[in-house]
Amino acid sequence: GENVEQHPSTLSVQEGDSAVIKCTYSDSASNYFPWYKQELGKGPQLIIDIRSNVGEKKDQRIAVTLNKTAKHFSLHITETQPEDSAVYFCAPQTGGFKTIFGAGTRLFVKA
Amino acid sequence: KAGVTQTPRYLIKTRGQQVTLSCSPISGHRSVSWYQQTPGQGLQFLFEYFSETQRNKGNFPGRFSGRQFSNSRSEMNVSTLELGDSALYLCASSSGGGTIRGEAFFGQGTRLTVV
């Protein structure tokens, strides 16, 4: 079956530093690779996504890189701020159109 | 544009009872997915509905069921509740018409507590 692994489970950085979260998936037919941010008491919210025909996408301080050969994609946050503190989930869409969420990464940004 | 609305926000039920949760998607969205979120298991996919048809299903027992109405609103039902069903149930809608489901817009969830 489909398998999604996300690392690390917890990440603590100093304000201004960069944070990188990696997601590995098993279904080679996966074609859509989003990252979601979940703040306390809220549902997850899309922050960036990438499709299988693109290797990298950037939106201000956030970027996503995709390596389809190795079946992993990563979230990069630069110049982290306290408001970036949240839980982040990768959620690749499988070839069977299911969305499988990673276990989540709790990011702490220390001021 | 109104977001995804889930009702009720909180529920307390007794073991053995059944419960129905409701989700109103964003206007124009035809795909509605349901997820169970617990601290130990993360976000687990329950099922997805598109145009009143179940299009995908996760690995949950038959006690969990759902349906979608012609206006795209969806309900999820859990029968014979168990303590382990206590969780945050999240609904997400997307336009969902193509081969890529695209961005999922989540509601705030229904917090179900089974006692």
Roughly how much helix do the residues of chain A carry, as a percent range?
under 10%
List the chains of the largest interface with their residue counts.
Answer: A-B, 24 and 24 residues
C-alpha-based Rg of chain B, rounded: 13 Å
- Runs of chain B in which pLDDT lies below 50 for 5 or more consecutive residues are none
Q: Describe the biggest sheet of chain B?
A: 7 strands, mixed
Q: Structural class given helices, strands, pairing of chain A?
A: mainly beta
Question: Averaging pLDDT over every residue of chain A, what do you get?
Answer: 93
Number of strands of chain B: 11
Beta-strand share of residues of chain B: over 45%
Q: What is the H/E string of chain B?
A: EEEEEEEEEEE
What structural keywords apply?
heterodimer; A: 111 residues; mainly beta; five-stranded antiparallel beta sheet; five-stranded mixed beta sheet; 10 strands; 0% helix; 51% strand; globular; B: 115 residues; seven-stranded mixed beta sheet; four-stranded antiparallel beta sheet; 11 strands
TL;DR of this structure?
The complex is a heterodimer of chains A (111) and B (115). Chain A is globular, with a radius of gyration of 13 Å.
Protein architecture, described:
Chain A has 111 residues and is mostly beta strands. Chain A is 0% helix and 51% strand. Chain A has strands at 4-7, 10-14, 19-25, 32-38, 45-51, 56-59, 62-67, 72-77, 86-90, 105-110. In chain A, the strands form 2 sheets. Chain A has a 5-stranded antiparallel beta sheet with strand order 1-3-8-7-6, with no helix packed on it. Chain A starts with a strand and ends with a strand. The model of chain A has no long low-confidence stretch (mean pLDDT 93). Chain B is mainly β. In chain B, 0% of the residues lie in helices and 52% in strands. In chain B, strands 2, 4, 5, 6, 9, 10 and 11 form a 7-stranded mixed beta sheet that branches. Chain B has a 4-stranded antiparallel beta sheet with strand order 1-3-8-7, with no helix packed on it. In chain B, strand 4 (31-38) and strand 5 (42-50) form a beta hairpin. The N and C termini of chain B lie far apart (37 Å). The mean pLDDT of chain B is 92. The interface between A and B is medium-sized, with 24 and 24 residues.
